[in-house]
Design goal:
The chain is an alpha+beta fold and 166 residues long. It has helices spanning 15-22, 26-34, 132-155, 160-163; strands at 2-11, 39-46, 54-59, 68-77, 82-90, 97-108, 116-126.
Amino acid sequence: MEGSVSRKLDVKASATKTWTVCGSLLLADIAVAAFPDKYSRYKVLQGDGYAGTIIQVFLAPGVPGPPWYKEEFLVVDDVNRVKIGKVIEGGVLDQGFKSYVAVLNAIEKEGVKDECIIKGTIEYVLNDIAALPLVEQSIEGLYGIMKAVADYVINHNNNKRLNSQT
């Protein structure tokens, strides 16, 4: 069985500023900081945050399932503001998924200054139909990270790093 599921979130910041977070390793930093009950840490195994980067994400003690997973960034497109990451080892692949890809987009709202939409999509192929409930958990987890990114961008709107990108 295969499919995809998406969620969207309105953000009171420009797509450019939002992408500065989504398109970098700062995304992983924010996820770990915002959800210490889910993620304990991550480490970069290869790369600089762009396509070809591989990170290993360690789940917090007590989180059901495998204790870690490896994700490869397949696409980090600064022009179209799209990031595509694929789980390549561990995690959901040990829980009945054959393929698991997360896509993040920062989309400018037409005609509205300093607002955008973050769209998160999970594209999956299941080996085991029993893993289907994990799809909903996964998109809700991604949505939580999207909200944490939005909060970060809004709360750090005067951050020189974010403002230098506009």
